[in-house]
Amino acid sequence: MKVAVIGDGGWGSALALTLARNGHAVRIWGPDAAYLADVARTRENPRFLPGVKMEGDLGWSADPESVAGDAEAVVFVVPSQFARATMKRFAGTVAGRGVPALSATKGFEEGTLRRMTELMRDEWGVAAPAALSGPSIAPETARGVPTAVAVASADAGVAAFFQRLFAGETFRVYTGDDVTGVELGGALKNVIALAAGICDGLGYGHNAKAALVTRGAAEIARLGAAMGARAETFAGLSGIGDLMVTCFSPQSRNHTVGERLGKGETLEGILGGMVQVAEGVRTCASALALAKKHGVEVPIVEQVDAVLHGGRDVREAVRRLMGRPARAERDGGAAG
Amino acid sequence: MKVAVIGDGGWGSALALTLARNGHAVRIWGPDAAYLADVARTRENPRFLPGVKMEGDLGWSADPESVAGDAEAVVFVVPSQFARATMKRFAGTVAGRGVPALSATKGFEEGTLRRMTELMRDEWGVAAPAALSGPSIAPETARGVPTAVAVASADAGVAAFFQRLFAGETFRVYTGDDVTGVELGGALKNVIALAAGICDGLGYGHNAKAALVTRGAAEIARLGAAMGARAETFAGLSGIGDLMVTCFSPQSRNHTVGERLGKGETLEGILGGMVQVAEGVRTCASALALAKKHGVEVPIVEQVDAVLHGGRDVREAVRRLMGRPARAERDGGAAG
C-alpha cells in the first residue's frame, strides 16, 4: 500500500520504517528539501534519528503532491506548532479524498487548544481521524525493538485499518475508540515528564519521583474525564504506559529538559541548544488553559508552567507541590 | 510514643528511622540476638541496610517482651514466610491488648493465601489492622529522601493514628480504607517486577517493558477487583506508584532477580547468593492460586510462575506473552 508519512522527525522516521518493514511503499515529507536529499542519498536521518539505517521502500520529498498525491493512507507526525500550517500545505492533496488519516503528533494547537485530530477535521474534512500513542521511544521502535501502541478512532473500521497497516512482528497495535483519551495521554505526559526531570535534576530519589508521576497520572485522568475521555484509556498504553517510560527512561527529551532545569540551567539556554522539539514546553500552557476551561485542578501542570513561563525557582515549585497538606488519598491527596 | 517495629530488615529499619525522626522511642525486633547486639553497638545494619547510620532513640532486641511489652503501637515488617510464626512469638505481648497494629510486609501466607493483616486478626485478634505500602526504596527512605506512602485501615481512626505516627518533613502518608487493595498492590508488584527484570535481562527496551508493566497493572487491578479491592487504589501510590518504581528502578531486588534470570542464571544460583528476600519469588505461586480461586486471567503471573517453578525458558515465556493475538485494548488486550 502507498502510505504518506508527513513529518521527518524521529518518531515519523520510526513509523515510516515500521510501515516499510510491512512491505508498504512509504513517502516521507519534511520541510527542508536539501536535507531530505541528503537523507535519501545516505539513507540516514542524522538530525532526528542518528545511527539508524533507513532501509526499505522509502522516499523523501518536500513536495506535498509527490508524497501524498496517490497515498492510500496518511500518517501525520509533525510537531504541534507546525501542524495546522503543514495541513494547509497538504489540503490540495488530502482534503476531501476520504483517505484514512492518523495523527501520531503529541500536543495541542496553541490558542485554540484543539487536538491534532480536530485539526484534521478542520483542514482536511476527515470524518473519523485516528490517533496513535503509547510507550514508544523512537530509536527503539526504529531498530525493531518490540513496541506496543494504542490506535483509536471513532470509526472502528478506521482503527482496524491502521492496526493492519502498522502491526508486525515487533510492533503491536491495540485498537480503541477513545480518540480524546489517547491524544490527551500522549500530550500531557510530556508535561509530567518535565516535572519528573526537575525532580531528578534536583537530586530527589525514585520514591519521590514515583509519587509525583502517580499524582501526574491522576491529574491527566481528571482533566481527561472533564473532556469526555474514558478513565480506562489512562490506565492503558497511551496513559500510564507512555507516562512511565517518558518519566523513567533517560532517553526522553522532555525529561532531559526538566532535569537540566532542575540542575539550574535556564529554559532559553536549554532550548537554544536542542535540535528536536520538547513538546512538553509548549503543551504545558495549553494544558493549563484546558484545565481552567474545564474547571479542573492540575497542581503539577501549574508548577511546571510557573517554572517555564513565570520565572519560578524549581526548588520553590517542588516545595509547593510537596508542601500540600496530607489528605486521604481518594480525596485528591496522593492520587490527586 | 513507644513503638515496636517487628522486623530488622531494610524496610523495617527505614521505617524505624522514620519513627525515630518524629521523636518516638523505637524498639526493633529481629531473630538473631548476636547480630542485633552488633547493630546496637555500631548503629549500623550492614546485612540489610548498609551504609546508613541508625540515629535516634532506637533499641534492638530478639526478645518479644522487651520490644513490644509496653509498646503503644506495633509495626510488623517481617518477610511473609516467617510472618505467622513470628506473630505467634508476639502473641503473649500483643494479642488482646488492643494496641494499634500495622503491617508493612508484602506478600501472602503460602497455602492459606491469607494477607498479612488477616494473620494479625488470626494471631493477635486485631480488629482493624492497618497496611502501609507505596513507592519506597528502603535506602532512600532511610536517608530521608522524600517518600509518600498509603496507609489503609477499615477503621479511619486507626489509619489517622498511623498517619500522625509516621508523617514528617520527608515522609508523607495518605490514608484510605481499602486494606485489601493496598496489600495486593504491594504484594503483586513484586511478581510484575520479576517479569520486568526478565525483559531487561533479555535486552528488550523500555517500550516493551512499559507495555508489559501496563499489562501488569491491569492484571493486578483485575485480581483486586475480584477480591473486593477498589480500582482507584491501584491507580494510587500503593498501585501504579509502587509498580513503576519497582519495575524501573535498578535498586529493586525482585527486578534484579528477574534480570539475572533473563541473562540465563538459574533461580537456585541467584537466591543462594542473596542475603535479603525477593518476595516476588514466593508471592508468584500465591498470586496464581488466588487468580485461579477467583477465576481471573493473569498471563504475566502465569509465565513468571512457569519460569520460576516450571522450568520454562525465559525466552519462551516472553514469546508466549508477546505472541498473544492483538485485540482491542479494552477487551483485555494491551491493558489486559
Question: Overview of this structure, please?
Answer:
- 2 copies of one chain form a homodimer.
- The first copy, chain A, is an alpha/beta fold.
- Helix content of chain A is 52%, strand content 11%.
- Chain A has 17 helices and 8 strands.
- An 8-stranded mixed β-sheet of chain A has the order 3-2-1-4-5-6-7-8, with helices on both faces.
- In chain A, α4 packs parallel to α6, α15 (279-294) crosses α16 (299-309) and α16 (299-309) runs antiparallel to α17 (314-322).
- The longest helix of chain A has 23 residues, at 179-201.
- The mean pLDDT of chain A is 93.
- Chains A and B meet through β7, β8, α10 and α12 of A and β7, β8, α9 and α11 of B.
Helix content of chain A: 40-55%
Biggest pleated-sheet summary of chain A: 8 strands, mixed
Strand content of chain A: 5-15%
Alpha-beta content class of chain A:
alpha/beta
- Strand tally of chain A is 8
The overall pLDDT of chain A, averaged over residues, is 93
Cα gyration radius of chain A (Å): 19 Å
Identify the overall geometry of chain A.
globular
Distance between the termini of chain A: 46 Å
How many helical elements of chain A?
17
